[in-house]
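I wish you would study the pair of lines that follows with an eye to the fold:

===
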Amino acid sequence: MNLAKLFVEKIMKPVLDHLDMASGGKGTMNTQAAINLILMIIAHESGKFTYSKQVRGPALGFTQMEPATFSWLVEWLGNSRPHLLDALSMFCPVEHLDPRYMVISPEFAVATARLNLIRFPEALPEADDLEGLARYAKKYWNTSAGKATAEDYLQAYQSLIGEAA
């Protein structure tokens, strides 16, 4: 089993299952589209599992979430979805949620990424719409201020998955 498949089976799916149960068990958190999108983000942002901390910047974890985004997410969850904030705390066994924990815990990084993605009103594209997922990643993860393009996300994902074949 290659690294991408192992990561999906042993890290992503259990984390997303936990978040799904915390959100009512309706299957909305652990979807193939969410798995593909987060794996696409990881493939691009971490250089296919190479970096868990940005070399020249503040971003943390394989998903490269910035501490400011993390703080905003924690506040948003506390105000709008405290049950999901409680679920997130299960992946960070320190007294206070600390974004630096994403560097050493891929589970925590995946959980924060998935919870960050639910705050956007636009639904995730279909799981097999890789170009749509790449545009979504650019729009909502990298934003218009970021250097990456949708094509960068798509190519990184395809390269990672190609290694999985």
Q: What stands out?
A: The two ends are 10 Å apart (CA to CA). The helical segments are 3-22, 32-45, 67-80, 82-89, 106-117, 130-142, 150-164. Residues 139 and 150 are 8 Å apart (CA to CA). The mean pLDDT is 95.
